[in-house]
Amino acid sequence: MGEELLRYEKLAEELGGLIATGTLRPGDRLPSVRRLSRERRLSVSTVVQALRRLEDRGLVEARPQSGFFVRHRGAARPQPSARSTPDAAVDVDVSQKLVRVLQAGMQAGVAPLAAALPAPSLLPIAALHRLYAGVARRHPGLLAGGNYFHTDEPALVRQLVRRSLAWGGPLDAAEIVITNSCTEALGLCLRAVTRPGDTVAVESPAYYLMLQLLESLGLKALEIPTDPRSGLSIEALDLATRQGRVAACLLVPNAGNPLGCIMPDENKRRLARLTAERGVAVIEDDIYGDLHFGDQRPWPIKAFDEAGNVMLCASFSKSLSPSLRLGFVAAGRRRPQVALQKTITSGGTNPVTQHVLAEYLASGAYDRHLRTLRRTYGQQVEAMAAAVARHFPASTRLTQPQGGFVLWVELPENIDATALHERALADGVAFVPGELFSASGMYRNCLRLNCGNPHTPEIEDAVRRLGRLMA
Length: 471
Ligand SMILES: Cc1ncc(COP(=O)(O)O)c(C=O)c1O
What we know:
- The chain is α/β, with parallel strands linked by helices.
- Helix content is 41%, strand content 13%.
- The strands form three sheets. Strands 3-10-9-8-7-4-5-6 form an eight-stranded mixed beta sheet, sandwiched between helices. A four-stranded antiparallel beta sheet has the order 11-12-14-13.
- Helix 1 (2-20) packs across helix 3 (44-56), helix 2 (33-40) crosses helix 3 (44-56) and helix 6 packs across helix 12 (351-362).
- Bound molecules: pyridoxal-5'-phosphate.
- The site of pyridoxal-5'-phosphate has 14 residues, from helix 7.
- Pyridoxal-5'-phosphate (PLP) is lined by residues 116, 181-183, 207, 209, 252, 257, 285, 287, 315, 317, 322, 327.
């Protein structure tokens, strides 16, 4: 035992030394476990222990199916929130600032590191155009006016149910409502289960649009500490819901925005059980579930829901095109309330687009497209992380997203990302300041970067300029 200990420490020391002297550089792949074991005449478990030791020290990272890689300088993860229990619920007031930030980020000539949007070049737009033409020809009656109450196209519902088999489903076709985007789905669910003045538990940091929705519906946000590796803290949610004052929990458990982490299955199971027991409705946003970097499609919380208490929302905005405006909610036992809100707020969802999507999914093209897209997003996130490590201050921390295409960056305490934002825009670079991910103004030294675009020299230069502004 003592000998084994020494052996793995010795190997960790040696590899650490190669990293320190630059023999092994950021991004380099370490020799495989099997090779190290053979060449160094060590057991596989000793080698794995040595690599884990290096991982704990933040020197290397494991990538599924690929092995261990040297991490980028300064690439420590953001600190989990120092708080382990939630504070009081607060009113939300982020909308005005957010609109200004997102509009400014869309201006021509500004590097697009703000809104989480994929580059059009990554999307199968030509194929979708062809399908629109084909569907219009083959289904000439689609725009002839339809049934006000049954606007979900069965062909699309069938495809969604089939897809859900891969992630702990199948969903029940009868619980699905097709929506205009994920945003609409989230809004419908909130309307279905809350009244103005209610409290909704959200992740901290939270996706800003969720905060905007709470603001517009007169709801209070209860910010639950969220770990950059494992997501929303179940312990904190447990504490927060003991007094029965939380109407709903709104979260992005798979490759969330902005932290990019995937909540472990065990936590999903606990969350599903806890919320069902306490009468807290769950609104889960799974928009990034298909965009995971690992081998397995992560399951949503919905897969662990036995009470019909979880409303699962998603859309194809991040994988096919944000302009499709096509999403859905699998609303469990609250389907009637959600469907009523759908009728009241928008009446239905464009049937042509529903058929286009149904045909695209049925053809198998979506899965082929996803395989490439996931790899591309992974590479773009990696390239952005490397650029941040090159150009931002040395003590910067950043997330290691497990999917999606945003990077959350924690700057040294003394840097105010909101003030930096003004100067960055003047210098032609956009990002979203961290405080917009909090209803109570936390994260002033954080920012989120969109990695939805290929990492061109222009993007690299934008990151370099941003780093210079922090110096
Ligand atoms: C977590 C999350 N949910 C929803 C959306 C918006 O999706 P949609 O365009 O379908 O409304 C986004 C877009 O940034 C997102 O990051």
